């Protein structure tokens, strides 16, 4: 059982002053094995904070990030899954599922994690999974009027991944979960 | 030299103890054989050891304790003697024949103890005699121990009310007088030590004095234990007499210790009732006395009381008088006093903001005579002073009600202002303080102005960059905390904040403008909400007004310069204007963004990101009419084609294809122009291959082609009639051929991409239904 935190679009301090207190008390160091961050932290202090939760931190560049050296995309393997990360402002139309599917094919990953829209999404798209952890601070977004702070915790176990989404709605943390199973497909050689 | 001295002292002490023990042995023999004469002889010899001047107080004490124990045995013997018929009065006389005065007095006190117990004379008479006889010893250390002995043996024999030694109507007075007199004499001896000996040994003397202080303080303790000394007596006699001695001795060490002693030893109610008398002594103390520590302890003790006898005004007055009387007191002292008083006031009268304000006001008055502070410790005290109400109320809004609070801030230098400002911001963030009116916001920003702008005389060049960033990020976070659901008030708040941050200069604007912009965009949303009356009153806030403000605000970034940031903010505003259905406003924002792109953004990487932001934003706009949209789209595709690197060009151009196809608007689906874009992208991809071949001898990766293929599939699925299965088929064949060609350098990533794309096509074919039919003609 490997716990992966997917989090992003905090936009501190441009659009939010801090993570919600309820989230902060949930996110304690030592419990999570990997952190995947879609970008737009945007300052070093947030990077350091995430790093303190877990040293294995992967960040991709958002258009407001102070550190311009984050990569545009990143791939990594955790257990049986290949994961891909990209902030998402590079994929046009923004938030478009089919265009994101193209990115997924391009990175050749099972799970694609992107952000930018500040809307939580987790769905299966022909053999792959696309996850958007939303904005951990509920930051302003031109996509939606109602942004609830949210983040995602993935529990990767063998060929199965359970995606837990934590959303702060009206001051209470609500959890939901979605199950995905990877089929051990044999790749067809062309 | 010192080591020798210590060794010598050890030797003398050992000799003294030996002498004492030897004489004690003989004394015991005499006691056992009831030989009074010999007992007196040997006890006198024994006590002679205490005549030494060679020992430090600590060593003398060891000798003294041994003598004390021996004298107890002697006392018991004296008691036995009186029972055997010896007259106590005769005994009292007999011991006075001892040769040397010190032994004589110790013996006298010892007999005196028995005398009092016998009740053959009133306790007061014996005590009076003894306390006066002790004047015979004027040597400080010997005199202190002798009088301490007197105090120890007389403790349980004072003519107190309810004691068996109670005398006539004046009995308590007598008891009190005895103790007071002993105390006064002991203090005099103690103070005299300060001036004995050479100046170079002052530290040594002061250390020795410190070792002896409890001997003097003990008397006050005894006074406090006298039953008959009630509040009135304390107020009328005890306290004034003690204070008189304290003040008149003019000795810093004594005053400091004894004032503290008084506060610790007597009950709190007494202090509350005699506050004025007590405080009246403070201005008369030596300037070098650490008044603030003593006063703080006093205030600490009193603050535990919730029955206040106008303690505040008394303390306030007293401190004022102290500061007035000691005109040379350094500013650190004065501020520390006010700091203690403020802490006390906040603890005891939390609801009396006027008291706290008075203290601050007095402090301001003192500070105004000083100018800007230079002393580091004084500034630290001021920070402590200013932090106290913040910690108490946890609410900067309450603190701002203290009218003198900002005035105190005026007197600190800009560094301290920044420190204090950070403290304030942290308090706001920690306590989630709501600052909800423009006035309060203005007052707050004025208070923290050290962070907002460069203050006069500040050392600008020495600012550490990381510190600066942290400060400005804190201001940015602060801006997020300013909120009011009333849109009119919120607009005023935004204008107030804007006014302040615009004084910040180019270094600060990149930090402070973005949060203000997003705050404003949130306001625009609020104005669009269902509760808002669309036909708002004259002059009320409208989205348009906010957008005007936004335009003017983002403009200020040009002077930094921060074109990339400004471009992003303009695009955000354009989207907001789109949601508000304000076409001209949205167009204006786009124009500004485009101008920035053309004129200010020249870095290739920055251009790539910028163009994607432009395309992404434009793609979502539905407010534009055909003409405006065409102009903007045309420009965007033009920029795309002119990017420096071919791959970037290719990607930007095919991204533009989405500008001609908007899913949820049927009239926005121009299949032809989509295809034109994609074909253009293909041409660029081809050109890229040829360039690569020419310069490196091998064609580059086929990735771009695969990407374009995916785009073809995208639009194919969406129902773009211009794209048919044949086109897709030929593209697939093109890619396959390229990959197999000799001049192609293998790229596993591109291979995998192509493979997964083909898998996708297969997947779609197998879906069946309409989708499966569509994909049927494509062969993989």
- Determine the mean pLDDT of chain A: 91
Shape of chain B: elongated
Question: Can you tell me the CATH topology of chain A?
Answer: Purple Acid Phosphatase, chain A, domain 2
Number of helices of chain B: 37
> Can you identify the CATH class of chain A?
Alpha Beta
The shape of chain A, in one word, is globular
Protein name (chain A): Vacuolar protein sorting-associated protein 29
Organism (chain A): Citrus sinensis
Family (chain A): Belongs to the VPS29 family.
InterPro entries (chain A): Calcineurin-like_PHP_lpxH, Metallo-depent_PP-like, Phosphodiesterase_MJ0936/Vps29, Vps29
What does this entry look like structurally?
Chain B: This is Vacuolar protein sorting-associated protein 35. Chain A: Belongs to the VPS29 family. Chain A: Residues 4-157 form the Calcineurin-like phosphoesterase domain. The complex is a heterodimer of chains A (190) and B (780). Chain A has 190 residues and is of the alpha/beta class. Chain A is built from 3 helices and 11 strands; from the N terminus they run βαβαβββαββββββ. Chain B is mainly alpha-helical. Chain B has helices at 2-32, 36-48, 57-83, 88-94, 101-118, 123-133, 140-154, 171-192, 202-225, 231-248, 252-265, 268-273, 275-281, 291-303, 311-325, 331-348, 353-368, 376-393, 396-400, 405-410, 414-431, 438-447, 449-452, 465-480, 487-501, 509-528, 543-555, 563-579, 583-600, 604-620, 626-641, 646-656, 671-696, 703-718, 725-740, 748-767, 769-775. In chain B, helix 6 packs parallel to helix 8 (171-192) and helix 26 (509-528) runs parallel beside helix 28 (563-579). Chain B starts with a helix and ends in a 5-residue tail after the last helix. Classes of the chains: A alpha/beta (190), B mainly alpha (780). Chains A and B meet through helix 3 of A and helix 24, helix 26, helix 28, helix 30 and helix 34 of B.
């Amino acid at each position: 059982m490997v716990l992966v935190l997917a989090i992003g679009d905090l936009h501190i301090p441009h659009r939010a002053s801090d993570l919600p207190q309820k989230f902060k008390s949930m996110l304690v160091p030592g419990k999570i094995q990997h952190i995947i961050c879609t970008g737009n932290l945007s300052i070093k202090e947030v990077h350091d904070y995430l790093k303190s939760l877990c040293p294995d931190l992967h960040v991709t560049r958002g258009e407001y990030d102070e550190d311009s050296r984050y990569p545009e995309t990143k791939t990594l393997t955790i257990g049986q899954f290949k994961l891909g990360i990209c902030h998402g402002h590079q994929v046009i139309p923004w938030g478009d599922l089919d265009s994101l599917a193209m990115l997924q094919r391009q990175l050749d990953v099972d799970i694609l994690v992107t952000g930018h829209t500040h809307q939580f999404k987790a769905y299966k798209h022909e053999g792959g999974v696309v996850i958007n952890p939303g904005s951990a601070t509920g930051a302003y977004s031109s996509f939606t009027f109602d942004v609830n702070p949210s983040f995602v915790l993935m529990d990767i176990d063998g060929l199965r991944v359970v995606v837990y989404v934590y959303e702060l709605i009206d001051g209470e943390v609500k959890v939901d979960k979605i199950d995905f199973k990877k089929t051990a497909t044999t790749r067809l050689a062309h | 030299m010192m080591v020798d001295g210590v060794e010598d002292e050890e030797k003398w002490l050992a000799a003294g103890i030996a002498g004492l023990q030897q004489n004690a042995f003989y004394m015991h023999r005499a006691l056992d054989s009831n030989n009074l004469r010999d007992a007196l002889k040997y006890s006198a010899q024994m006590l002679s050891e205490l005549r030494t001047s060679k020992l430090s107080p600590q060593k003398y004490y060891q000798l003294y304790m041994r003598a004390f124990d021996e004298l107890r045995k002697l006392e018991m013997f004296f008691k036995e003697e009186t029972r055997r018929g010896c007259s106590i009065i005769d005994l009292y006389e007999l011991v006075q024949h001892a040769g040397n005065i010190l032994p004589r007095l110790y013996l006298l006190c010892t007999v005196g103890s028995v005398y009092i117990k016998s009740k053959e004379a009133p306790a007061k008479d014996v005590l009076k005699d003894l306390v006066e006889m002790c004047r015979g010893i004027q040597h400080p250390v010997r005199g202190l121990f002798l009088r301490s002995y007197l105090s120890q043996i007389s403790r349980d024999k004072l003519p107190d009310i309810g004691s068996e030694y109670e005398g006539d109507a004046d009995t308590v007075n007598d008891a009190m007088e005895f103790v007071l007199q002993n105390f006064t004499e002991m203090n005099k001896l103690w103070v005299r030590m300060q001036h004995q000996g050479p100046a170079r040994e002052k530290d040594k003397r002061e250390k020795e004095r410190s070792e002896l202080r409890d001997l003097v303080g003990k008397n006050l303790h005894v006074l406090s234990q006298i039953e008959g000394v009630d509040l009135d007596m304390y107020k009328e006699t005890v306290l004034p007499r003690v204070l008189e001695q304290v003040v008149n001795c003019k000795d810093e060490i004594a005053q400091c210790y004894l004032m503290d002693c008084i506060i610790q030893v007597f009950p709190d109610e007494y202090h509350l009732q005699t506050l004025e008398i007590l405080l009246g002594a403070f201005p008369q103390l030596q300037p070098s006395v650490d008044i603030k520590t003593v006063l703080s302890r006093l205030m600490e003790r009193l603050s535990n009381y919730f029955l206040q006898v106008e303690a505040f005004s008394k303390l306030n007055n007293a401190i004022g008088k102290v500061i007035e009387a000691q005109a040379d007191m350094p500013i650190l002292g004065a501020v520390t006093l006010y700091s203690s008083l403020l802490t006390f006031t906040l603890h005891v009268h939390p609801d009396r903001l006027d008291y706290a304000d008075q203290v601050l006001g007095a402090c301001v008055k003192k500070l105004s005579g000083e100018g800007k502070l230079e002393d580091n410790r004084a500034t630290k005290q001021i920070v402590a002073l200013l932090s106290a109400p913040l910690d108490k109320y946890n609410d900067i809004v309450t603190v701002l009600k203290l009218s003198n609070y900002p005035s105190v801030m005026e007197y600190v230098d800009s560094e301290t202002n920044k420190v204090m400002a950070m403290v304030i911001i942290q308090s706001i963030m920690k306590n989630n303080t709501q600052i909800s009116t423009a006035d309060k916001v203005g007052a707050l920003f004025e208070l923290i102005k050290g962070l907002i702008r460069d203050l006069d005389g500040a050392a600008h060049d020495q600012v550490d960059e990381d510190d600066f960033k942290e400060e400005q990020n804190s201001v940015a976070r602060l801006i997020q905390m300013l909120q009011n659901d009333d849109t009119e008030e919120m607009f005023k708040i935004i204008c107030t904040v804007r006014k302040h941050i615009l004084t910040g200069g180019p270094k600060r604007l990149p930090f402070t403008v973005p949060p203000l912009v997003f705050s404003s965009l949130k306001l625009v949303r609020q104005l669009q909400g269902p509760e808002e009356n669309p036909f708002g009153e004259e002059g009320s806030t409208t989205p348009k007004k906010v957008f005007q403000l936004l335009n003017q605000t983002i403009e200020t970034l040009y002077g930094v310069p921060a074109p990339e940031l400004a471009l992003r903010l303009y695009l955000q505003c354009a989207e907001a204007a789109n949601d508000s259905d304000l076409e001209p406003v949205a167009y204006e924002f786009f124009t500004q963004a485009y101008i920035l792109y053309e004129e200010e953004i020249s870095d290739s990487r920055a251009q790539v990101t910028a163009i994607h932001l432009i395309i992404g934003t434009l793609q979502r706009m539905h407010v534009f009419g055909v003409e405006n949209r065409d102009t903007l789209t045309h420009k965007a595709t033009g920029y795309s084609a002119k990017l420096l690197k071919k791959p970037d060009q290719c990607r930007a151009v095919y991204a533009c294809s989405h500008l001609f196809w908007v899913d949820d608007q049927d009239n926005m689906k121009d299949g032809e122009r989509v295809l034109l874009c994609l074909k253009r992208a293909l041409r660029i991809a081809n050109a890229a291959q040829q360039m690569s071949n020419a310069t490196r001898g091998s064609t580059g990766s086929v990735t771009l082609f695969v990407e374009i293929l995916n785009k073809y599939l995208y639009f194919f699925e969406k129902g773009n009639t211009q794209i048919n299965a044949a086109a897709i088929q030929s593209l697939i064949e093109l890619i396959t051929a390229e990959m197999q060609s000799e001049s192609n350098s293998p790229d596993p990533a591109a291979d995998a991409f192509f493979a997964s794309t083909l898998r996708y096509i297969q997947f779609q074919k197998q879906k069946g239904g309409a989708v499966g039919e569509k994909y049927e003609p494509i062969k993989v």
